[in-house]
Amino acid sequence: MRTVDLIQKKRDGKELSTKEIEWLISGYASGDIPDYQMSALAMAIYFKGMSKRETRDLTMSMLETGEQIDLSAIMGTKVDKHSTGGVGDKVTLILAPLVASFGVPVAKMSGKGLGHTGGTLDKLEAIKGFQIERTQEEFIKQVQDINLSVIGQSDKLVRADKLLYALRDVTATVDIIPLIASSVMSKKIASGADSILLDVTVGDGAFMKTIEDAVELSQTMVDLGKAVGRQTVAVITNMSQPLGRAIGNRLEVLEAIEIMQGKGREDITHFICELAQIMLELAGKKVDLSEIRNHLTNGQALKKFEEFIIYQGGDLEDLYRPSSANYITEVISDDTGIIQELPALEFGLFAMRLGAGRAVKSDNLDYETGIVFDKKVGDRIEKGEIIAKIYSNKKIEPKMITEFKKNVRIGDESVDSKEILKIIV
Ligand code: URA
């Protein structure tokens, strides 16, 4: 086989065979196929797509390029959760301890943030001492002991995705369904959980811009999970505005704590209870929303969260420390009305410029910076009220405030903004 012939075959819109896909992916993972040929192939897939069979073969071939974690030493149904990326997405910080507080083992590998989207690992690393690296044995022992561990993706899993994702990131080939589905599902299958909840974000701040594309991505991933015997459910969630109030690593940890103290906004509190109900059901437990809310707000989830932070070396005092950012700048509304839009992408990029996110993989983060919104879409605001506070280590120039306000659209219409848009099983 020659790589150039297979690139041409895909470029001309033909289907690649199972053997051809296996050959391409193993050749890429071993270094025999260079980046320039793989990027041409990714672009051909971007324009010509892949059939269901090709996507399944791609996922399985990627899976074969690394180890698979065996979680069978942990009793019970192990559940995992994955988000396709968002702005202000601190869901795992709350959902994982909440579900674990019901005695369900949560063994999760998470990623770092890139561009306007955040990553759970970065938020956890904002806590002094927290360790994201664990051996497989330590990871399993922790889940056996306290039902919860969240660690960084092991280098040994899905080598092809490590290489391909970095390549896609710099060749404008990230946002295409077969490549996203195979990337996510190869990692989830390799991570070993029995059941998987996929949070597929849609909207301005997400890879999927339309609900139709989000449904197609969800269905593709659910089918891939089921094909290898993993119970898989996808929830399509709204990422047209940032999730919750905070964007930025420490600020999001603090918001997560606020929610687990029962002081969070109602919209995100309810959303997390709904996700927990699905995750618990995936683990074989039917639990009422009211009981889940009790666990979330009466300190049980928070106790589990603290236990988890301590177990992974985090400093409990530092966990509750407010942001040490040098400047807190209030953004004041010039108008009275109802917030119509807070585009997630724009605010994700704004927070990135403050140091809360990485423009490129090698960037260092400033864990203390970001944005906390006082108002969200659908909220009423009066002229002179605070829209948001900007946490920064450099002085915020008036020009930046003007830019910030340009993205806050205030009008007269009432807006109903829902978090969960659809559930695909
Ligand atoms: N998240 C992933 O892990 N892979 C993708 O391709 C996109 C989002």
Automatic annotation (TrEMBL):
Name this protein carries in UniProt: Pyrimidine-nucleoside phosphorylase
Single GO molecular function: thymidine phosphorylase activity
EC primary class: transferase
Catalytic activity: uridine + phosphate = alpha-D-ribose 1-phosphate + uracil; 2'-deoxyuridine + phosphate = 2-deoxy-alpha-D-ribose 1-phosphate + uracil; thymidine + phosphate = 2-deoxy-alpha-D-ribose 1-phosphate + thymine
NCBIfam families, alphabetized: PRK05820.1, PRK06078.1, Y_phosphoryl
UniProt GO BP: pyrimidine nucleobase metabolic process; pyrimidine nucleoside metabolic process
Subunit structure: Homodimer.
Domain Pyrimidine nucleoside phosphorylase C-terminal intervals: 338-411
Organism of origin: Streptococcus zalophi
